[in-house]
Amino acid sequence: MKQQSLALHETMEVHEMLNLKTVSMTTSKMMEGVVFDQDLKALLEKDVQQSIGAINDLQRLLKKAPKIE
């Protein structure tokens, strides 16, 4: 069976989501170092872990993107 690939506009949208998630994860990780409240620090760490999972999923999706030659 032929593997399905993403359309060009879908590839662009996945790239945009990946960029947004990466920036969001980086911001949360940086904020962990300056936050003193332990509850907030725990929420930021949870956000980082969830973002890592989402980034991995988006990267897997991008493997289905068409190759431009």
Automatic annotation (TrEMBL):
Organism superkingdom: Bacteria
Protein's name in the database: Spore coat protein
